[in-house]
User: Fold this.
Amino acid sequence: MSEQAERAETFLRGLQDRICAGVEQIDGRGRFVEDAWVREGGGGGRTRVLTDGDVFEQAGVNFSYTQGKSLPPAATARKPELTGASYVAASVSLVLHPRNPHVPTTHANVRYFEANKPDMEPVWWFGGGFDLTPFYPHDEDVRHWHTVANDLCTPFGSDVYSRYKKWCDEYFYLKHRDETRGVGGLFYDDLNEGGFERCFAFTQAVGEGFLNAYLPIVERRKAMPYGEREREFQLYRRGRYVEFNLVYDRGTLFGLQSGGRTESILMSLPPRVRFEYAYEPEAGSAEAQLAAYLKPRDWV
Amino acid sequence: MSEQAERAETFLRGLQDRICAGVEQIDGRGRFVEDAWVREGGGGGRTRVLTDGDVFEQAGVNFSYTQGKSLPPAATARKPELTGASYVAASVSLVLHPRNPHVPTTHANVRYFEANKPDMEPVWWFGGGFDLTPFYPHDEDVRHWHTVANDLCTPFGSDVYSRYKKWCDEYFYLKHRDETRGVGGLFYDDLNEGGFERCFAFTQAVGEGFLNAYLPIVERRKAMPYGEREREFQLYRRGRYVEFNLVYDRGTLFGLQSGGRTESILMSLPPRVRFEYAYEPEAGSAEAQLAAYLKPRDWV
Assistant:
């Protein structure tokens, strides 16, 4: 393994620990249970899942590390010059499903990738981001979320936030519903501009920034009262999360198709979900207000 | 429209009526509500959904009829000689989600397709089938299901049942779980051997045979007692149904990608679902017995 890959992996393992600690602390009751697993062919992971917490109905934080002798077709299709290269991939990926419908669902991922071929300089890149999926959105929360995202991007260039915010809106888009998955955040991939140190520092800023963006929102909303109506709307909207992850999400589909560990990949799915034919919220209701948040908007 | 397409369409509309009547009768309480809709570009449909019945938590029976000026890429990829052809497609498609976990979920579909190009003989084919997804399988039910399937195939050739049974096992397969969606049934596509009359008669036999295959199983199981344990297992297994439909099912994905009516396509999704990380049924339990049924097996 290269020194770069080692540093990225060490950071990602530590990030998983820090995020799990932060989630357990705000939950108060729930504790993560870890499955450490080994991947045939090289690598492995630590899948951590917290269920039935006070705040989180389910929280999954996955670290995985893959070594492969030959890049899979899905990767070489985008980068044909890497056909036959060996590779290292490491990532932390999480999805948090809160119980209270006033607390948004969230997802974050940071990842490092490196390909090696004889007679070729190693090729590496980072990717990552985080995005927020509220059921009953509050402007204050969404502004805070995007402000944290913007602030962590600023040291890396004045256009970084707006580019990665746009990429996030485009990536988390359900074409068949003509709506975004939520209110967005950051998304980037193939990042290797400006050298390893800069890209690594940016990815660290995204990974470490996640809890700063999310926890204040949880703190504000976790004790808000709700009833069956809000719960049913949350279960219904979680159905869109399932639709996105299984129909569009490249990470999920690539993982399932390439023989990844199914349980770790699908731990992103919500614990309980409801689908309803032709549901429409009542005009003017709290539920009807969500639609306006599922179109890209400037928040900073 | 050709006379053939007109006959197929008339049959399919009538089939939707007959199946809905049969489902309402055995349910006793639930009634279908119809949405008639028009497709931009030509055609339309009648989506019928029954919710909160005594037997069926949700039942969807969809008729749709599409006229198009130019075959979509997904169809011409398989049949490049039809590039630029106009087409007519008509189908009945249904998914029934029972409330009682002892009653299996089921799906059926029959369809007719016709492509026309100047200076070319019209090209047509039929497709269809039905399949069964039990939660607590009973051999008696599965044997009955496959016996009806076999009997309706026999007049059309001694190898028809075994070929279409195998095709069904292969089609309804979740690679990432290494299991079939259920205990199979019949699946066929591109059928135009032996002339229109023979293929139409076979498709009529499949469509009309569905209730004969399914209703006796419902009758036997609908009053069986069950509790929270069986309900929770049913909700969990419905998650696999969602996984199949959104990750693999060509009809669903083609429909969503080609701008079909989303609500009609996704009415196949179960009303309530549960996902659980790394769930394993207790060894020797009733729930553990299902796995043995999710490998292809001879039933006749």
In short: The longest helix of chain B spans residues 196-221. DSSP finds eight helices and ten strands in chain B. The beta strands of chain B are 33-38, 43-51, 56-68, 86-98, 105-116, 123-133, 173-174, 179-180, 184-191, 272-274.
